[in-house]
Design brief:
The N and C termini lie far apart (about 80 Å). With about 160 residues, the protein is of the alpha+beta class. The chain has helices at about 5-20, 35-45, 55-60, 130, 150-159; strands at about 45-55, 65-70, 70-80, 85-105, 110-125.
Protein backbone atom coordinates (compact mmCIF):
# COMPACT_ATOMS: atom_id res chain seq x y z
CA UNK A 1 0.00 0.00 0.00
CA UNK A 2 2.96 2.28 0.64
CA UNK A 3 4.06 2.09 -2.99
CA UNK A 4 0.77 3.65 -4.19
CA UNK A 5 1.64 7.18 -2.90
CA UNK A 6 5.05 6.86 -4.55
CA UNK A 7 3.46 5.85 -7.82
CA UNK A 8 1.15 8.87 -7.61
CA UNK A 9 4.19 11.05 -6.99
CA UNK A 10 5.76 9.67 -10.15
CA UNK A 11 2.63 10.39 -12.18
CA UNK A 12 2.40 13.94 -10.84
CA UNK A 13 6.05 14.63 -11.66
CA UNK A 14 5.31 13.88 -15.31
CA UNK A 15 3.01 16.91 -15.45
CA UNK A 16 5.50 19.38 -13.97
CA UNK A 17 7.98 19.54 -16.91
CA UNK A 18 5.20 20.59 -19.31
CA UNK A 19 4.27 23.44 -16.97
CA UNK A 20 7.89 24.63 -16.76
CA UNK A 21 8.45 24.80 -20.52
CA UNK A 22 10.42 27.91 -21.48
CA UNK A 23 9.59 29.34 -24.88
CA UNK A 24 11.28 32.29 -26.61
CA UNK A 25 9.52 35.64 -26.20
CA UNK A 26 6.64 36.37 -28.56
CA UNK A 27 8.69 38.86 -30.61
CA UNK A 28 11.21 36.20 -31.67
CA UNK A 29 8.59 33.80 -33.00
CA UNK A 30 7.44 36.16 -35.76
CA UNK A 31 10.65 35.76 -37.75
CA UNK A 32 11.22 39.55 -37.97
CA UNK A 33 14.54 39.48 -36.12
CA UNK A 34 17.78 38.14 -37.54
CA UNK A 35 20.51 36.77 -35.33
CA UNK A 36 23.84 38.38 -36.23
CA UNK A 37 26.75 36.28 -37.51
CA UNK A 38 28.89 36.96 -34.41
CA UNK A 39 26.14 35.66 -32.11
CA UNK A 40 25.53 32.59 -34.30
CA UNK A 41 29.27 31.86 -34.35
CA UNK A 42 29.58 32.27 -30.58
CA UNK A 43 26.60 30.02 -29.85
CA UNK A 44 27.78 27.29 -32.24
CA UNK A 45 31.37 26.93 -30.96
CA UNK A 46 32.63 23.83 -29.17
CA UNK A 47 31.74 24.21 -25.48
CA UNK A 48 29.80 22.52 -22.69
CA UNK A 49 26.06 22.87 -23.28
CA UNK A 50 23.17 21.58 -21.23
CA UNK A 51 21.68 18.53 -22.96
CA UNK A 52 19.04 15.99 -22.02
CA UNK A 53 20.67 12.57 -21.61
CA UNK A 54 18.71 9.30 -21.56
CA UNK A 55 19.07 7.59 -18.15
CA UNK A 56 18.61 4.06 -19.52
CA UNK A 57 21.41 4.54 -22.06
CA UNK A 58 23.77 5.46 -19.23
CA UNK A 59 22.74 2.43 -17.16
CA UNK A 60 22.01 -0.28 -19.76
CA UNK A 61 22.60 -3.12 -17.28
CA UNK A 62 19.45 -2.20 -15.33
CA UNK A 63 16.92 -3.28 -17.96
CA UNK A 64 14.20 -4.28 -15.51
CA UNK A 65 13.71 -0.70 -14.25
CA UNK A 66 12.06 2.41 -15.63
CA UNK A 67 13.29 5.85 -14.58
CA UNK A 68 11.43 9.10 -14.02
CA UNK A 69 12.41 11.40 -15.44
CA UNK A 70 13.55 9.27 -18.36
CA UNK A 71 16.25 11.81 -19.23
CA UNK A 72 18.28 14.21 -17.11
CA UNK A 73 19.92 17.57 -17.87
CA UNK A 74 23.72 17.28 -18.04
CA UNK A 75 26.48 19.50 -19.38
CA UNK A 76 28.07 17.79 -22.39
CA UNK A 77 30.48 18.95 -25.08
CA UNK A 78 28.72 20.05 -28.19
CA UNK A 79 29.21 22.48 -31.02
CA UNK A 80 31.12 22.94 -34.22
CA UNK A 81 34.84 22.96 -34.90
CA UNK A 82 36.77 24.92 -37.48
CA UNK A 83 37.06 22.03 -39.95
CA UNK A 84 35.75 18.52 -40.54
CA UNK A 85 38.91 16.81 -39.24
CA UNK A 86 38.21 18.13 -35.74
CA UNK A 87 35.55 17.11 -33.23
CA UNK A 88 34.40 18.67 -29.98
CA UNK A 89 35.72 16.54 -27.07
CA UNK A 90 35.81 16.98 -23.28
CA UNK A 91 39.12 17.94 -21.65
CA UNK A 92 37.74 18.17 -18.11
CA UNK A 93 34.95 16.05 -16.62
CA UNK A 94 33.29 15.66 -13.24
CA UNK A 95 30.85 13.26 -11.65
CA UNK A 96 27.44 14.51 -10.61
CA UNK A 97 24.89 12.55 -8.59
CA UNK A 98 21.21 13.09 -9.33
CA UNK A 99 18.12 11.71 -7.64
CA UNK A 100 15.57 10.01 -9.89
CA UNK A 101 12.68 7.63 -9.32
CA UNK A 102 13.46 4.00 -10.14
CA UNK A 103 10.31 2.06 -10.99
CA UNK A 104 9.98 -1.69 -11.01
CA UNK A 105 6.69 -2.40 -12.77
CA UNK A 106 3.92 -2.95 -11.96
CA UNK A 107 3.81 -0.83 -8.78
CA UNK A 108 7.16 -0.40 -7.01
CA UNK A 109 8.88 3.00 -7.10
CA UNK A 110 11.69 4.42 -5.00
CA UNK A 111 14.03 7.41 -5.20
CA UNK A 112 17.62 6.46 -6.07
CA UNK A 113 20.83 8.38 -6.60
CA UNK A 114 22.63 7.83 -9.90
CA UNK A 115 26.03 9.21 -10.83
CA UNK A 116 26.60 10.69 -14.28
CA UNK A 117 29.57 12.30 -16.03
CA UNK A 118 29.37 15.98 -16.92
CA UNK A 119 31.77 17.84 -19.20
CA UNK A 120 33.27 21.02 -17.77
CA UNK A 121 35.72 22.00 -20.50
CA UNK A 122 35.84 21.13 -24.20
CA UNK A 123 38.18 21.58 -27.14
CA UNK A 124 38.34 20.71 -30.81
CA UNK A 125 40.73 17.86 -31.53
CA UNK A 126 41.42 15.40 -34.32
CA UNK A 127 38.77 12.70 -34.59
CA UNK A 128 39.72 9.16 -33.60
CA UNK A 129 38.96 7.82 -37.07
CA UNK A 130 41.47 10.22 -38.60
CA UNK A 131 44.09 9.55 -35.88
CA UNK A 132 43.93 5.82 -36.51
CA UNK A 133 43.83 6.03 -40.28
CA UNK A 134 47.20 5.08 -41.82
CA UNK A 135 48.81 7.87 -43.77
CA UNK A 136 48.81 7.41 -47.49
CA UNK A 137 52.32 7.52 -48.83
CA UNK A 138 53.01 8.03 -52.44
CA UNK A 139 55.76 5.91 -53.89
CA UNK A 140 56.81 5.38 -57.41
CA UNK A 141 55.83 2.01 -58.79
CA UNK A 142 58.34 0.10 -60.83
CA UNK A 143 57.72 -2.68 -63.28
CA UNK A 144 58.71 -5.26 -60.63
CA UNK A 145 56.01 -3.91 -58.27
CA UNK A 146 53.28 -4.13 -60.85
CA UNK A 147 51.55 -7.51 -61.06
CA UNK A 148 50.11 -6.69 -64.48
CA UNK A 149 53.59 -5.94 -65.81
CA UNK A 150 55.11 -9.27 -64.78
CA UNK A 151 55.07 -12.37 -66.89
CA UNK A 152 53.24 -15.42 -65.48
CA UNK A 153 56.56 -17.24 -64.98
CA UNK A 154 57.97 -14.40 -62.82
CA UNK A 155 54.86 -14.50 -60.62
CA UNK A 156 55.37 -18.23 -59.94
CA UNK A 157 59.04 -17.74 -59.06
CA UNK A 158 58.24 -14.99 -56.54
CA UNK A 159 56.00 -17.22 -54.39
Amino acid sequence: MQSLPRLLLVLVTQLIPAQMLHLPPEGNSTGNTVMKFEEVLEKSQCRPMEQLVDVEQNFPEEVEFLYKPACVPLWRCSGCCINEELECHPTLERNITLQVMRILPPASAQPVQLTFVEHQRCECSITESIKNRPRRRKHKKTASDCEKCQSPQNKINRH
